[in-house]
């Protein structure tokens, strides 16, 4: 126990901490500038000087550690004089342009000068000049205001790990540089904005348009961009979002946000938001009243149900909608219309991968805490760049590396480039062979524990590739040995699985904590809510009578007992005429599912296509009825993130036009009522109430518990489904054939700066990544005679696209990358798909493209 | 051995490749006499260090140049000992004779003049380095003779 | 006094291993390899050697701290940054007697159980680099460096790491940052380099001259060594003497010799028989002394009593033709140029003071400028991250204290007190 006295107050400390932290515990606030919680101490600004008895010099409290018996004074005349002179020094080169500076009002320097500063400066010489820089999208730099606390650099090199900025120059000619147009891997996370104490690094959004004290309202909510679910605060003025900021101490993201979360909110303020229901009249969508639209939908659905039965109707749920929205859709389709045909784009990878893993390891295998990754001693990253798909989760992997963890990537490491010990870059589509080989090696090295016979039996049945099989992959058996040994050597390994590799999973030991990357904020919730053809809310198989009866009892409604159709099956059925109506909520299948032409044909074949969305999309463009819904910051409800944490989403605004949009769950409840559903829901809480009664995963969980951030399921819910009555896992005994191709494969780029089509109306994100481009390796570009910025034509039997070329050394030269974001230029359009017979997931096939230069 | 390889080889002297950075920057500067963005990128790639970090380091040390330099680099000391022994008038003299300001380059690109802090030749002040050669006890007469040796 | 550090350097071949061995070189290393590491440390402690880099920290004590740390590997770094203006004492060792340094480092490494060393050589000494690298090669060839030194089993590898023009890299933690490839800014202490130094490992940083003293201590023993010069900080000392003396140069003399002896008996007195106006005894960071300060013994004990310090032992002599305001201004523009920028007072204060001094020197001084300078200096002193900023402020205070008349004359008369045609 360490005892110290600070300004006469005694503090007892378990462990030595800095004097600054001890003072905080004693309730003594010491002024600081370069100190920032969570960053490595710097000790440069010298504002936090204190007197320590027996030490001759003043000491910086942010760096000096407490020792037993220490006596510290923090506010003597000597100290005040020192602070005054430090502030006078800082003002020498500071422009004193507070009247124009957006930071005024929340500027540390301004506050400190008010507290300790000199009345007037005595500096009579010219100040150093440095032009304000607008080289970057989103961020504006004014280095004349910089006080060189280096908090931004320590943030960028520390928690963010982007290494995009550095102090350049020396002495008073030092400037923080150089984001400069993305030249240096800037990830535009904006975390430097959080830490900058003055107005040196500022957002360009809303520049000069508001002052911090204009903020009228702050809403604590969860980011709507991806499945990490970072906590954030939306600051509002006159019903408009003026800023999204993280709040230290709230949420597991610990004050960090990524570019999408911080700057992407603007897309919901887009002029293009739907304002009224639309109905197709003579081939064109025309505005109609809500009453007209709802009546039409109800009647059409009734007709179809009467003529063909509930099974002719299907629905697509959404990873961007809340649990409540999805639950209601599921209830309507399943219990009101009597169809189990409900699925979502989680079918693309997330749902089947989770199902597959659960079939091997049991339910909940992917329920792991994101914050635990940083403490693991190794991470195996497979099939996707976590730093782009789930950025804040990616930061945890970087943190694990900084803490000595070994990061191994199968596939291009992307934003983990500087963090991986090494990467295995196999030829396309051979990842599974590599994984099987690794598992094979692991099985040889470690005898199975015998604790879990089912799992072990499955592992034993795995076909282990021969050296010859390996030969095709471009990865040597030495590499496999190295990777396997490294994995086996990890005490607390983490496996991160991305969308690009969904099939078999390595299965060494249950020790591994598995994370599935989730592109959408609520893929997990979609599944938990039973928006799956084979599962009821709470992850209960629809085919198991016991579970079905339980839920039917709770609701007083019946559900069909057979599995429904998956998303892809629904499309096939629509194509062949078996499916007559599709109700799409917050999804854009025409753009987000491979082979757009096929999807378009199928959807065109329907008798009724209803789309509920915020904007007009490719899919709503061909719908019979389009209903305007609320966007993420206008919603109340909950999301469940990829670690299965249920979090509150709160309504921030009724924006310019959003008052026309209605909550998704409400629209559906309205229609369901016309079908005779008696239950009334006044508020979103009523929907949640019902969920907690129906879903065994959510039993007893109120909004208040969720608000505390502790709702990671399974909590007080019923026990999870066990391993008994297990499903057989087929197909473990084969290996995929590697499809060689002279033509490059078209792959989906999952960019940090976009989130599918959700972000394509965000001005901020567009300013970084404004148009679709084809990312290719410099070697390939040389072979094709295509230089950076030139136009390429890519084509296959599904279509033709013309795009600008961007070179990227980090991608393989047998692949080209294109995002699936921009209207008319989505990668999905040229990609073919098949459905895996074992786990029902989509697999990509026939995605080679011809790439040639467009001559002008 | 190209520059990339040369830089790679340097890192063997250090437990962490980053240690070779200062040396690598010298190697990258050797041919052109200054560090272009391209040269910095070569260093960054060879040592697998972030470009921003390399830039930050390269601009901290005054012997790395970030603008094109003349074929020869005259580094004239004007610190106290050299100043007292007449370095300032040598600066004026060079300006008059060759039209070159401190920090500048002659019109024909033959040499650049840089003012140095103490170069450790105070006993034979004023002194200068031309490229890597020391010259001391400078006067207006001998400085011309010396400079004329560098074409 | 018999020369040890600069022994044989008049010989044009003094830098060669052959020549070095001819005059007795590497005998101490062979002797040291027979000794237990702890015995060598004890000897260096007993000898009373204090670091020659400026701070005068007892070398044996530093070694003791490092060798007590259980972490390995340990690094030995020779500080050959020699950046202090007026200092050029390490240069003759580096350029003309490199094997003395290598021998000193090999012995030190044995004592510290270090197997890896670097010589941090300032960028401004390109020739020294050539000499050192050649000498290191020779030493490897002869087995004085390598995996198995002199066949005795212990190994030591050595290479040159060249700085690139940053005075602050002479400060040991900034130097370590620089070796690791970062911007050369000082680190937070504690932990001290002896525990957490280069790459997080125990690291000893010693000046060239300090390490060059080690073979002598091993050769003659602690007792004889401590009899040289002032018993409180004994040993031979290199003094670089420059500016207004007849014969500037590096002099190897016993520690504690007076300034007066150095200037008049060794450096030929003030040039042209002029009047002595001021002396800086320890490089530009050491406060200036008035003429009556010359009776002060040159060592780590006596100079502080006179308000200055031994620093690097660089004696800068100014006669009556030199303007003190101008010297003070030039010194401050050096500090401003070399401030690393990490801490506020040094980064901002040095530039401010340079501006004021420039204006006084140029005849635009203002009435309260002297007080302002003093005030700024006091605002800096004791609040900087490392001693550079403190030093800069101390220099100004020293000049003002001793030559305030000259400053005031500049301000009131808008011109220099020293007539140009003196
Ligand atoms: C600003 C500053 C510059 C320094 N420059 C040098 C230098 O050029 N050479 C040197 O040996 N020590 C220099 N030192 C001292 C070193 O920090 C350190 O004390 C010394 O290398 C230790 O070696 P020693 O114990 O052998 O003296 C400097 C210190 C400071 C604060
Ligand atoms: S005193 Fe401060 S700014 Fe100056 S060199 Fe030291 S750390 Fe850097
Ligand atoms: S907060 Fe301690 S020195 Fe800046």
What does this molecule look like?
The complex is a heterotrimer of chains A (856), B (151) and C (422). Chain A has 856 residues and is of the alpha/beta class. Chain A folds into 4 domains: 2-75, Roll (Ubiquitin-like (UB roll)), CATH 3.10.20; 278-346 and 522-707, Rossmann fold; 351-516, Dimethylsulfoxide Reductase, domain 2, CATH 3.40.228.10; 745-853, Barwin-like endoglucanases (Beta Barrel), CATH 2.40.40.20. Helix content of chain A is 27%, strand content 18%. In chain A, a hairpin with a 6-residue loop joins strand 3 (49-52) and strand 4 (59-60). Chain B has 2 domains: 3-60, Arc Repressor Mutant, subunit A; 72-148, Glutaredoxin (3-Layer(aba) Sandwich), CATH 3.40.30.10. Chain C is built from 15 helices and 8 strands. Chain C is globular and about 70 Å long. In chain C, helix 3 (37-47) packs across helix 6 (98-112), helix 3 (37-47) crosses helix 9 (208-226) and helix 5 packs across helix 7 (126-141). With 422 residues, chain C is an alpha/beta fold. The structure holds flavin mononucleotide, iron/sulfur cluster and FE2/S2 (inorganic) cluster.
State the gist of this model.
The complex is a heterotrimer of chains A (856), B (151) and C (422). Chain A is α/β, with parallel strands linked by helices. Helices cover 27% and strands 18% of the residues of chain A.
Give the tags.
heterotrimer; A: 856 residues; alpha/beta; Ubiquitin-like (UB roll); Rossmann fold; Dimethylsulfoxide Reductase, domain 2; seven-stranded mixed beta sheet; five-stranded mixed beta sheet; 27% helix; globular; B: 151 residues; alpha+beta; Arc Repressor Mutant, subunit A; Glutaredoxin; 2 domains; four-stranded mixed beta sheet; 4 strands; 43% helix; binds flavin mononucleotide; binds iron/sulfur cluster; binds FE2/S2 (inorganic) cluster
